[in-house]
Amino acid sequence: MFDWRPFLFGGLASSVAELATFPIDLTKTRLQIQGQIFDNHTQQLQYAQKKYTNMFQAIYRVSAALLRQATYGTIKIGIYQKMKRLFADDIRQEKLYINVLNGMFSGALANAIANPTDLLKIRMQANHPSVQGKGLFTAMASIAKKEGVRGLWSGVLPTVQRAAIVSGIELAVYDCAKQQLICQLNSSDTIGTHFLASFIAGFAGAFTSTPIDVVRTRLMNQENSSSRVNSTAASMPYKGIMDCFVKTTRNEGFSALYKGFFPSWLRLGPWNIVFFIVFEQFKNLDRTLESRRAIPIDQHL
């Protein structure tokens, strides 16, 4: 019988973590698209920031972020947990490099499927003209109509690459750190252990993923000009991953690849803490319910 629980717990915990850290993620995205020599959205961003006098209304337009986690988080965590048990029966038999590969595969596959929701989230956070004043599904349909269905998968390659790196590092480092804390330092499998292990995983994920995250964000924020009659180089400044990487470092310096690092870390740190603690609590609750179901009814009385 198919076990759906890792998928459900992963999706719910991811959505809770996304909701808790969305303001930081919004800050990170806007930092990463600023300073581009070809950036033609700066004035629109400034206007948008002035337009929303109530910042809470602007920050918590999280429908796209939650939709993304409902798809990406569900698939990623479900597949990762399933694949772990294909190679090891329990946590003591797990190997770091196997978990890294499992995390890379599950993250890449999940993000390849969920890329349209990721694209929509970034454009909504950047207040891109293609999504201004539109609802969630109306905006997605507008992008598909104007840029083609392939436009929904703009930036899919750097997105998949980032997902592979982040998932491979975060999930494997968390499991490894948790195992070491429990086995080597005689820590208990408690919220404190989950907190420390997730903090380590968040820093490792932010450090390794920020450069490709900058490239991914800039590629996704540029509008596909293939559908425009009067397309110009300015409307499509980057031709691909390497072109964006070269132009960014040449025009803004190598440090530009770490734009938004601290917001990224401030997001990934709390995001991982919230996610793993909530995920572990779902697992604990499930184990408690399982044990209660295993006890005869008369022993509950």
Automatic annotation (TrEMBL):
Q: Give the main localization category.
A: mitochondrion
Q: Which InterPro entries match?
A: MCP, MCP_dom_sf, MCP_transmembrane, Mito_Metabolite_Transporter
- Solcar-type repeats, residues: 5-86, 94-180, 189-285
Any Pfam family matching the protein: Mito_carr
Q: How does it sit in the membrane?
A: Multi-pass membrane protein
| Gene Ontology biological process | transmembrane transport
Q: Which UniProt keywords apply?
A: Membrane, Mitochondrion, Mitochondrion inner membrane, Repeat, Transmembrane, Transmembrane helix, Transport
Listed under GO cellular component are: mitochondrial inner membrane
- Is Transcription regulation among the key words of this record? no
User: Which cell locations does it reside in?
Assistant: Mitochondrion inner membrane
**Record's family?**
Belongs to the mitochondrial carrier (TC 2.A.29) family.
What is the designated name of this protein? Uncharacterized protein
Give the organism, scientific name: Rotaria magnacalcarata
